[in-house]
# Entry
Amino acid sequence: MTDATVIAFPGHAPSSAPSSPAEAYRDWLSWAECEFSILGHDIAASGFDWEAAYRDGLRPEAAAAQAAAQVEAG
# Structure
């Protein structure tokens, strides 16, 4: 992987780690929200279980894709 294909979290150095589980979830959710927005959806109106996706170990972009599919399916 080259540096050109790496997406950095806003406000975080690539080597910084979350200081708590709550911060780790907020970082993950922020990334998922960005990905979901790119897909044209609003996270507040999704009804998707973001916490379960996080607990299941889904990457943010995979969770966003699942949420988008759920929203688009109605």
About this structure: The helical segments are 21-38, 50-55, 60-73.
